[in-house]
Amino acid sequence: MEIFAHRGASGDFPENTFAAFMEAARLPVFGVEFDVHMTADGELVVIHDELIDRTSDGTGYVKDMSLAELKKHDFGNWFSPDFQGETIPTLADVLDVFDSTHHKLNIEIKSDIFPYEGMVKKVLDVIESRQLESRVIISSFDHSAIQAVAKLNPRVETAALFMEVLVNPLDYLRKIPADALHLLFPAALRLSMAEVITSGMPVRTFTVNDETHAKTLKQAGVQAIFTDYPEKMNAFLHSI
Ligand code: G3P
Ligand code: MG
What we know:
By secondary structure, this protein is α/β, with parallel strands linked by helices. It has helices at 18-26, 67-71, 91-97, 119-129, 143-152, 169-175, 185-188, 191-199, 211-220, 230-239; strands at residues 2-6, 31-38, 44-46, 104-109, 136-140, 157-162, 180-184, 203-206, 224-227.
């Protein structure tokens, strides 16, 4: 079973920062996952929440701030004073970290709350200009964004994100269309979801920090997990 470092190695480093990504980049794990929003001046930045309040010394919505304004804030100190001075990375900054590594890059487009007009095209432009099509998976809870990726560049792998237990998931996934299903941990073990695994479509599960859960998911045929503790989970999965 493959491992993705969730928001970088976010268990031991502040999520979605250079520190978390530098750590993920040195680990022998399959991939890394990170979240992308768009600023008021149309820049792509890597952060989980719509607001900067939880993970910085500032306050306000990413959509209302320019990249220059966002860059003035500290994104490390909330986690630990050891990480004071971390600034918000752009999508390009994060791709630079993984420029010469083997890691698969799961870009989660966070347009499910605010629509971020034109964001999908901007993300694809960055991927295409760096010729990263074969290394990238674009996922989103906003399935219209997934549909847009499939239309604009079918060579880029897509994944629909879900929290729920679905009825006939394959019908819906094919309709979007999505190449893979990224699913919340407990839902991945429900019977209706086995249909997706049996079909051969990749099912990847978030967020798995418990070794017992990881073992159960491996036995169920889940292709990959997203974990905040990639190094620990990698050692565990190699031990069983
Ligand atoms: O992409 C998997 C996972 O990151 C989805 O949930 O809220 O952690 O972005 P969230
Ligand atoms: Mg995410």
